[in-house]
Please model this.
Amino acid sequence: MLSGGRSATSSLLHGVAVNRRNVLFLLFSIVGIIADQASKQWIVANVPLQTGEIKIIPGFLSIVHAQNPGAAFGMLGDFAYRHWLFLAFTIVAGIVIVDMFRKLPTDDWLMSSALGLIMSGAVGNAIDRMRQQYVTDFIRVYTDHEGLAGWLRSTFGTNEWPSFNVADAALVVGVGLFIIHHLFFEEAEAGEAEPTDLVSGGEVPLDEDDIPTDKEPAVRPVPDAGAEAP
Model:
């Protein structure tokens, strides 16, 4: 009975380890989408469009209410078929993300988290575009510092970053984790995967003295155990 209990516990722990990739991907995807949509609904209900502002960190961070009919930085906002373009992009991105996820090792927690965040960002904004033809943005980052604000305005024409939302933040963080994984973890995993044992497939490599030449065969004959030594 005790042995059976240990076996069941071992199987359960093994299942948890195997499914950690799935859990992280689903967790970041679902929680990210819910957080994005819930925050947007709260903004629409509590912050007046264009005029409302809640200062979180004066001179740096505020909550506002804006509508973006385009992509990042308002791009393609006037394109007549932008909604179909964004929908097609989201579908293709979702297929690519799922395909990459399926090929991940079961213990790759970093890439699972990155793909989950990217998925939540893509789906969160896609829901907005399909439901209301625009994306609700509400996070405003800016500076009121006289010197820095003046330099930003003279260099970039503005002293604030375009307003964004939770889905945008999830996308940026997810892409950042993806890049970190690609730059640092993939090389480490490739190094660990390189074989260190020279014995492969039951064959032992030849020593220098055993390398065949033009005058001798590649495999030396094995003397008969029953033959008499000269």
Notes: The first strand starts at residue 53 and ends at 57. The chain has a mean pLDDT of 80. The beta strands are 53-57, 61-68, 135-142, 160-164. DSSP finds five helices and four strands in the chain.
